[in-house]
Inverse folding.
């Protein structure tokens, strides 16, 4: 989840790479030095001076598989605990200091491990060593009951957000309980059970830390602009005195088997569509069969030629898409087929279509071309797996900790590329054909008739909403403890010299037809990212047929006049490239990635898609049905309901911002293929377009390849102006009922200015200490101090109209009013509480954060897109840097007063009316206005 402090996943990180990538590109050579400290800590160093930044990744070999029954979710919970203070690092420093140094930090837990990672400008490298080493070796004495209780509430909020308050959220819980015996380490989910989390004690924390957070159970990777010899000395200083601890036994493979199918169902409070999932027992990571199972999943479900797609989507028309994947974890694995059906689809019918697809797969086999297409894509994926310095740090650590050495990358590559047709057929027969599976039916709570025949009710325990149910906690900021004696001084180290900001050179060109071209050459990896943006999008839709632009864009992916959808898909795949057309509120965009050697061929395919679309009636009907299905599905998503309704109330009728992107059921139903063609003829013009290219390719090659677009012609299109907005005269509170919601979604905000306004960047800067990241006021108050939420933020997206200021969070239901009051207080008093110290922190975050702004191709591409979209100068980053450097406190205060006036804002809550609606009037803004899920006043 973007912006959150931690990430909890249900699977291990994976690295998919291809041998051909290494064989064909001798220039790519990931050099590293590995060594081990006396206490057993495994260390890997990788030097990369392409950007003045350093990344650190620490993998501790402990995930949910190491937990005890009755203490499920503890590895993930301990990850949260580890972001608090330690003996030599003060409370809050980990979460606040790293962002305020211009860096980023996060963590994640999966079944088999926990990872902590950071990226900072190189001047803050010593501070990372201080923070990370103290967490691994000097944390335990500082943990108190208040911190323990606070983090319990945060983790439970995360569980509500990720599991309890979302459609299909309980699926993993049901499957794991059914597939694995009670004594199996995978019998429970990573997030665990609420009762187990609440029961955790300080003694549990100490026992867990002492048992698993020992140097010999971890791998530390440092990558970036470092000196290897100097870094080895620093690692020995900071990490060398940590006690070795007892060795942690290795986990051995524990595969499981099923004697018969187990069919289970759940009536889902939030689901709007029926979903069936087949989960087959499979093999652990790095097992020879896991590689072939990965290919099998792709062959069954991805693309027009996949048998599941042909049987379930094309022939039976029971769903808009299908999924299949292989998940190989450390001690066991699963192979999954998943179908979310159309509204009203009987899961008996879907199941029969899946069975028929498997019969067809066995009967029809697959071609060598299909296999080659998969391997070509793996070659491209190989490079993107190592694009950033942090990517490299993570991958080196994963191979070292779970395969025994970073050198296993070569074995992994060989195993992936060695998969043959015979291997795929063999694993199909061994693990899938006529084999038992866990079969789950998750259906809307009022549609039990859709459940697969023979299913029994799954044991899903819903949390009961009770006011004041959570325990109060008081954190002690002056915990008395005896410091662990050390020979090395563990006080906070100073910053080194600030690295000089190097902004990449931008080149520009324009074709005679009006197409503007922007580029940045960056040769670190042999890959290229590009995008073609055509201004207009939903802005140009007929108001009675909203969604036309989005449907047209989707349909442009489905073949060309010379290629069927399948042929186009194969042509792109064989290049190892990706090409996708999509539409949003303000544009039609074609995005692509490719190996540099295949750039010209990829651009030629883009030209086909752009200038000679196929306009296939059957594909149009399928995509239209899929869009209608998505609209229905979104009605069970609290966050989507809140976002759409908030924007509808914030902007006047007819304003583009108040319309749901992609249209409504009524407007999409009204769209015909002729409407799509008419939109294309009228609005797809080079005079509206800009092409952005970044990567290992010269300006001359880009211009030569783009000559293929010289025949594209069209007129300049006038975009309809949007109504000017002014703030409300007084705040207004709205409420949408989502019965049984375990969390309330809160949105607060007002319109500000368009992204091309001179005031726009000042508003973004002024917002920094309110809600930009976990170190800002909203996150610190609602999560760190109160434990009400998993995350809280505020932001101003870049739009061509008056961009909204949005402050938002998902809070536990029984503190909805208290959370609203915090939003109200923090925003209303923001100007008066914004001091010189806040300005200093803001400047540091932005100025130093720019050192990470140009590391990946995605970041470079975003820079070009922003420049062209809002007609900014080539050096606009430098201009903004100058603005921040020269910014004074009074300027910030004026911006806050002008654009972030709380008395001009609206408040929206999506939550459980039965337990919370009566309390809303206590906010002081009168009785809330009740809305339906579409944002209409009831």
């Amino acid at each position: 989840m973007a912006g959150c402090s931690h990430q909890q996943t249900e699977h291990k990180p994976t690295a998919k790479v291809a041998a051909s990538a290494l064989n064909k590109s001798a220039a790519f050579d990931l050099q590293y030095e590995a060594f081990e400290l006396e206490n057993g800590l495994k260390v890997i160093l990788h030097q990369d001076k392409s950007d003045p930044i350093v990344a650190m990744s620490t993998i501790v070999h402990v995930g949910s598989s190491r937990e005890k029954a009755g203490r499920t979710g503890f590895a993930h919970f301990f990850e949260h605990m580890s972001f608090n203070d330690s003996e030599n690092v003060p409370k809050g420093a980990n979460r606040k200091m790293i962002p305020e140094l211009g860096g980023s930090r996060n963590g994640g837990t999966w079944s088999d491990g926990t990872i902590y990672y950071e990226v900072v400008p190189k001047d803050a490298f010593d501070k990372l060593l201080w923070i990370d080493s103290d967490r691994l070796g000097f944390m335990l004495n500082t943990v108190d009951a208040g911190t323990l209780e606070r983090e319990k509430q945060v983790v439970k909020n995360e569980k509500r957000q990720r599991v309890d308050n979302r459609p299909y959220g309980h699926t993993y819980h049901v499957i794991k309980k059914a597939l694995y015996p009670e004594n199996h380490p995978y019998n429970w989910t990573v997030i665990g059970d609420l009762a187990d989390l609440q029961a955790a004690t300080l003694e549990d924390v100490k026992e867990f830390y002492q048992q698993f957070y020992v140097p010999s159970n971890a791998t530390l990777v440092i990558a970036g602009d470092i000196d290897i010899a100097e870094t080895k000395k620093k690692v020995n200083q900071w990490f060398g005195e940590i006690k070795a601890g007892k060795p942690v036994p290795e986990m051995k493979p524990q595969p499981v088997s099923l004697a018969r199918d187990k069919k289970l169902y759940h009536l889902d409070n939030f689901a709007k569509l029926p979903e069936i999932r087949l989960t087959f027992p499979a093999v652990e990571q790095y097992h020879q069969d896991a590689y072939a199972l990965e290919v099998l999943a792709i062959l069954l479900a991805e693309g027009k030629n996949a048998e599941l797609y042909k049987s379930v989507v094309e022939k039976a028309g029971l769903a808009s898409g299908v999924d299949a994947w292989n998940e190989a974890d450390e001690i066991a694995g699963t192979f999954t087929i998943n179908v979310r059906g159309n509204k009203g689809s009987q899961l008996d019918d879907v199941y029969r279509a899946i069975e028929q697809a498997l019969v067809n797969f066995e009967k029809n086999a697959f071609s060598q071309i299909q296999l080659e297409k998969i391997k070509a894509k793996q070659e491209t994926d190989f490079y993107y797996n190592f694009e950033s310095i942090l990517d490299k740090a993570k991958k080196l650590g994963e191979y070292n900790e779970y395969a025994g050495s970073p050198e296993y990358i070569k074995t992994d590559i060989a195993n992936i590329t060695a998969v043959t047709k015979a291997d795929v057929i063999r694993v199909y027969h061994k693990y899938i054909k006529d084999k038992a599976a866990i079969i789950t039916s998750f259906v809307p709570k009022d549609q039990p008739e859709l459940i697969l025949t023979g299913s029994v009710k799954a044991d899903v325990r819903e949390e009961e909403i009770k006011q004041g149910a959570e325990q109060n906690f008081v954190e002690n900021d002056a915990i008395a403890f005896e410091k662990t004696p050390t020979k090395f001084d563990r006080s906070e180290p100073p910053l080194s010299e600030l690295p000089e900001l190097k902004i990449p050179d931008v080149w520009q060109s324009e074709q005679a037809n009006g197409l503007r071209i922007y580029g940045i050459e960056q040769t670190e990896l042999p890959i290229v990212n590009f995008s073609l943006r055509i201004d207009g999008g939903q802005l140009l839709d007929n108001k009675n047929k909203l969604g036309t632009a989005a449907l047209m864009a989707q349909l442009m992916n489905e073949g060309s006049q010379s290629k069927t959808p399948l042929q186009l898909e194969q042509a792109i795949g064989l290049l190892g490239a990706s090409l996708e057309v999509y539409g949003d509120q303000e544009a039609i965009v074609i995005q692509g990635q490719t190996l540099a050697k295949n750039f010209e061929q990829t651009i030629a395919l883009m030209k086909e898609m752009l200038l000679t679309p196929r306009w296939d009636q059957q594909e149009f009907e399928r995509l239209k049905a899929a869009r209608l299905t998505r609209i229905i599905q979104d009605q069970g998503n609290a966050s989507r309901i809140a976002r759409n309704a908030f924007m509808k109330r914030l902007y006047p009728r007819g304003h583009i911002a108040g319309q749901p992107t992609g249209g409504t059921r009524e407007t999409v139903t009204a769209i015909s293929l002729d409407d799509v063609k008419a939109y294309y003829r009228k609005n797809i013009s080079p005079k509206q377009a800009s092409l952005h290219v970044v990567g290992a390719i010269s300006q001359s090659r880009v211009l030569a390849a783009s000559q293929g677009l010289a025949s594209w012609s069209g007129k300049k299109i006038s975009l309809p102006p949007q109504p000017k907005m002014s703030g409300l005269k007084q705040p207004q509170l709205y409420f949408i009922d989502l019965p049984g919601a375990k969390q309330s979604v809160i949105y607060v905000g007002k319109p500000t200015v368009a992204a091309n306004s001179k005031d726009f960047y000042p508003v973004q800067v002024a917002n920094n200490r309110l809600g930009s990241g976990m170190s800002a006021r909203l996150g610190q108050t609602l999560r760190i101090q109160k434990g009400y939420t998993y995350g809280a933020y505020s932001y101003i997206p870049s739009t061509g109209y008056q961009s909204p200021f949005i402050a938002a969070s998902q809070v536990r239901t029984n503190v909805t009013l208290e959370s609203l009051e915090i939003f109200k207080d923090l925003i209303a008093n923001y100007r008066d509480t914004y001091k010189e110290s806040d300005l200093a922190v803001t400047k540091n975050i932005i100025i130093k954060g720019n050192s990470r702004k140009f590391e990946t191709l995605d970041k470079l591409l975003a820079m070009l897109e922003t420049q062209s979209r809002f007609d900014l100068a080539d050096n606009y980053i430098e201009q903004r840097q100058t603005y921040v450097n020269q910014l004074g406190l009074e300027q910030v205060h004026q911006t806050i007063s002008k654009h972030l006036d709380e008395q001009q804002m609206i408040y929206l809550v999506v939550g459980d009316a039965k337990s919370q609606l009566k309390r809303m009037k206590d906010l002081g803004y009168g009785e809330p206005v009740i809305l339906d899920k579409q944002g209409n006043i009831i």
Notes: Confidence is low (pLDDT under 50) at residues 1-27. DSSP finds 33 helices and 25 strands in the chain. Residues 262-384+403-457 form a domain with the Cytochrome Bc1 Complex; Chain A, domain 1 fold (CATH 3.30.830.10). The first strand starts at residue 7 and ends at 8.
